[in-house]
Amino acid sequence: MASPSASHPMEPCQTVDPLWNLAKTEALRLCRVYEEEMGIMYPVLELSELLDQVHLLYGPMDRTIGQGLHSSGQNGLDLWWGVLLWQEAKLRRDHDADLNLQSIFYFQMHEETLAWRTIGIVERMYLEKGLHRQETLDQPAIVAEGKDRVLRLFWSIYVLDRRWSFGTGMPFALEDTDIDPWLPEPAEKTPYLRVMIRYSRIAAKVWKFISA
């Protein structure tokens, strides 16, 4: 009987940043696409920070693997959401922001139930931190992060919860009665979000009225 062939040792798996599948110019373009498509409505991330992360990752050279990927349309945006999630989680180690992005990503992938479920988790985490109360805004950690940024995050999550709930028919994760009436709204530089907060409040009352 022939002896078994010698097994070849497994080559070590190289870990490569998935963003390098995109050309640097394409990565920068998709950052701006994200801002135009979602960031302007739900200011969870700062465009300047995203662009800085891309420049930091690529450095002065465009380290594209192979021929790179020049995407267009929904497929390219879906891919960008995936690598954006991974990169945001790696650089910021911010679990709240990571889950927030995951919720938006699920919506982009037409998984509205998963989007609703994930944003509900984020809202409950914010409730645990007391971000629905005005007095919490004076805590040192909130001041260090920036009150305006925290308010943008909280109200973006509030609006997203309403949007996913209306789309799926599922209940809200956070009721208006749970929110401190003295909690300020985001600054004037986020006009869409401010309008959507008021729209969501009215729509929630109408929905409860017709569902009663």
From TrEMBL:
CDD domains associated with the record: fungal_TF_MHR (cd12148)
Stored SMART domains: Fungal_trans
A GO MF term: zinc ion binding
GO BP: any one term: DNA-templated transcription
InterPro entries noted in UniProt: AtrR-like, XnlR_reg_dom
Superkingdom, natural source: Eukaryota
Keywords from the named record: Nucleus
A Pfam family that the UniProt record links to this protein: Fungal_trans
Keyword Cell inner membrane applies: no
Domain Xylanolytic transcriptional activator regulatory: 115-190
The name this protein goes by in its record: Xylanolytic transcriptional activator regulatory domain-containing protein
Organism name: Penicillium alfredii
